[in-house]
Amino acid sequence: MRRPVITLALAWLLSAALAQTNVVMFLDPREPMELYQQYADSYNEANPDVTITFESGGATSDQQQQYLNTVLSGQSGDIDIFQIDVIRPATYAAAGWAEPLDSYLGDDMDAYLGDFLDGPVNADTVNGTLYAIPAYTDAMFLYYRSDLLEKYGFEPPTTLEELESQALAIMEGENDPNLQGFNYQGAAIEGAVCTFLQPFWSAGGDWLDDEGNVNVDSDAGRRALEWYQRTLDTGITKPNIAETATDNSRQEFQAGHAVFMINWGYAWAHFQNDEDSAVRGNVGVAPIPAFEGGDSYTCVGGWQWALNPYGDNKDVAFDVIRHYSSPEFQRDLAIVGGRMPARRALYQDEAVLEANPHFGAFYDVIVNARPRPVTEFYTDVSEIIRSNMNAFLAGTQGIDDTLTEMQIGLEDAIE
User: Fold this and answer.
1) What's the pLDDT band for 226 if we cut at 50, 70, 90?
2) What CATH number is given to the structural domain containing 217?
3) Same domain flag for 264 and 380
């Protein structure tokens, strides 16, 4: 007489198991996983039929992209949500590897996106369609030795001309052969793309004109390269800047060997917290100086949430994206992980600023951050800009040849 009860119980358990939805998220392995798990648990409490699990891999953006390319080119639905670098949305959109998100937000889209910074949203929007949601952001800044500027009576420079004159004066006054005036990224890496773009933008340039034609071999392009040539000619930049990658710059500034440096937001915590920091308490942060009469620009960085178009549970997975891009999660991610929020209001949050006092100083820079070229051909575009910029800074290619090679290469890349 007990068998029907047992059969019904087994049937109920089987039905419940079949109804359970597991959402798989692919993350950068450097993320604070305990925090992600806490939010997975809270989501499961509110949605008992949904569990969230994590995968991670690849120490760099390029390595992670290679893995995701393999998964998505096979149209696998094994991963539901994945993080991508801010430079990737257009590439994934063109390949059909990122689900368009407009319909998931519907009539609320403008209001929802209005809470985020413009830079990441612009990078996530391709031909008017949204393909990703900002997870957190980053930008490049001018770091400066506040003690040296104070010693010589200088305010942080707002123009590139002021940066040059201040660097020369301080180098002359200090008479230290190890002290550089101005350090930036010249190696053939992604940072070199921003090295070119930031003064190029300030000079009024854009890589495409209003008709969609490549426009780097222009007055703005020439002005940007002439500026970098001047940093070498005056000696405010070291001769081997073409060998300098992102963390080389950070280490040299941290050792006290540079007056000014351009780098990403991550550097601040090193300057203030690393035991070997020679500049702790003597670092200021400012917007990247502009050409006289031009505007200041910085490259936007950071990571985005994308939805796998081949997944079986896209509605649920998108709700999980909203959970992990919520004000609450981005607030905790800033406090626990030091990530720069992509939501505007969190730059006025007392707990966020207590954990990261420099975020207040960064805000004016971050709101003006501008995406690198938003194109499905970004991998080729990046390689062309960085390799030519590196050759120019190494002295193996002049201004004319650099602009010509860059122009022709970019034209070929987007044909």
Assistant:
1) very high
2) 3.40.190.10
3) yes
Task: Provide the domain count of the chain.
Answer: 2
Query: Domain ends where: 340, 355, 370?
Result: 370
Q: What is the mean pLDDT of the chain?
A: 92
183 and 119 within one domain: no
Rounded to two decimals, what is the model's pTM?
Answer: 0.82
DSSP letters along 317-354, please? HHHHHHHHTSHHHHHHHHHHH-PBPSBGGGGG-HHHHH
Q: Which two tokens stand for residue 228?
A: 């970098």
Which segments within 46-176 are labelled E, that is strand?
A: 50-56, 81-85, 125-126, 129-130, 133-145
- Considering the domain architecture, whether residues 66 and 181 belong to the same structural domain is answered as no
Q: Identify which of 140, 139, 157 has the alpha carbon closest to the alpha carbon of residue 148.
A: 157
**217 and 152 inside one domain:** yes
- Calpha distance 191→233 (Å, rounded): 22
Q: Are strands 369-370 and 298-307 parallel, antiparallel or unpaired?
A: parallel
Region of residue 356 (left: phi > 0; alpha: psi -120 to 50; beta: else): beta
Distance CA(112)–CA(116), nearest Å, equals 8
Confidence of residue 7 (pLDDT cuts 50, 70, 90): low
Q: Is the pLDDT of residue 303 over 60?
A: yes
Residue 374 has which token pair? 């938003």
Q: Tokens 């950071």, residue?
A: 302
- Is the separation of the CB atoms in 392 and 225 below 8 Å? yes
179-to-168, 174, 278, 284, 338 alpha-carbon distances in Å: 11, 8, 13, 17, 30
